[in-house]
Design brief:
Layout: H1 4-15, E1 19-27, E2 31-38, E3 43-51, H2 57-70, E4 81-86, E5 90-96, H3 103-110, H4 115-134, E6 137-138, E7 147-149, E8 155-157, E9 164-165, H5 184-187, H6 195-211, H7 221-230, H8 241-250, H9 261-266, H10 268-271, H11 281-284, H12 300-306
Antiparallel strand pairs: 1-2, 2-3, 3-5, 4-5, 6-9, 7-8
Helix pairs in contact: 4-6, 6-8
């Protein structure tokens, strides 16, 4: 019998003295995630264990980026990084434990969501993404699989391995992310500032929430890319005019004309039933937002009634 597994467990126990390790939650090519209990507080955490010998320089950089960016955030809808423990052979990331799976599984089980529930999730996602952008971090891989759920079905954004820091006047050019959720400028290998590609992904996620399917579908990758580049998608008949209006203003191929996060926040559909704890007027004020299409902020219901079919795509 190979005793290497027992030696690894003993080594982890010696390093993670404040934690009691439990079952394995998941495993990949160079890491595994284990459930653990923080002994002093009895709080359950997820510990990502990375084997240094299994990761190359590129993957090491990805891990460093995730650690550095997660350390910037303290937000109710971004997964918390509690502690990083490093040894010669391993890196341990002690993170917030989410016990209800991810949004992709939730959509698969539930089918399309009613608009109120979709709005509840979308408000939390946008708030978390806005926090990232205020810290000059662009996620670049937003998708339901990277949106975890807690026991009360609150969203936590995770997996910042493809994230990067943005700087005013500088552009990114790396093609990354998941094709179904990638913005046109990304798949066209164009330069991009950063936040606008996250906004596009949020629009795809919102469509996915309310329709139970993705807006851009094709039998092969070239076909998918063609639809994304041209913004070719259709709305099901059951979507409200206000929801169509918001999605159509997010899924705009030209990133210059695409809604920004502050504009999304001010859209009447988004503002309905908006939770008070997410109100951040001082945050909104740091942006320069376009004023058109932001009318009736104080009466979103009146605005939505005023929409007519020829105002939507």
């Amino acid at each position: 019998m190979d005793g290497s597994g027992a030696r690894r467990r003993a080594s982890s126990s010696n390093i993670l003295t404040n934690y009691k390790l439990g079952k394995t939650l998941g495993a990949g090519a160079f890491a595994k995630v284990k459930l653990a209990t923080h002994i002093p507080t009895e709080i359950k955490v997820a510990i990502k264990i990375l084997e240094r010998r299994s990761i190359n320089d590129s993957e090491t950089e990805k891990v460093r980026r995730e650690i550095n960016n997660l350390r910037l955030f303290s937000h109710p809808h971004i997964v918390r990084l509690y502690e990083v423990i490093e040894t010669r052979s391993r890196i341990y990331l002690v993170m917030e434990y989410m016990n209800s799976g991810d949004l992709d599984d939730y959509i698969t089980l539930s089918g399309r969501l009613q608009e109120d529930e979709a709005r509840h999730f979308f408000q939390q996602i946008i708030s978390g993404v806005e926090c990232c952008h205020l810290h000059m971090v662009v996620h670049r891989d937003l998708k339901p699989r990277n949106l975890l759920l807690d026991s009360e079905h609150n969203i936590k954004i995770c997996d910042f391995g493809l994230s990067n820091i943005t700087r005013d006047g500088h552009f990114l050019k790396t093609y990354c992310g998941t094709p179904d959720f990638a913005a046109p400028e990304v798949i066209c290998n164009k330069l991009y500032a950063g936040p606008e590609v996250d906004v596009w992904s949020c629009g795809v996620i919102l469509y996915n929430l309310m329709c139970g399917r993705l807006p851009f579908n094709a039998e092969n990758l070239p076909g998918l890319y063609a639809k994304i580049k041209n913004g070719v998608y259709t709305f099901p008949h059951y979507l409200s005019l206000a929801a169509r209006d918001l999605i159509s203003r997010i899924l705009i191929v030209d990133p210059i004309n695409r809604l920004s996060i502050p504009e999304i926040r001010r859209h009447p559909w988004f503002q309905l039933h908006f939770p008070r704890y997410l109100l951040m007027p001082t945050v909104i004020s740091v942006y320069n937002t376009k004023e058109q299409h932001l009318v009736h902020e104080d009466h979103p219901e009146r605005y939505m009634r005023s929409l007519s079919p020829n105002q939507t795509n």
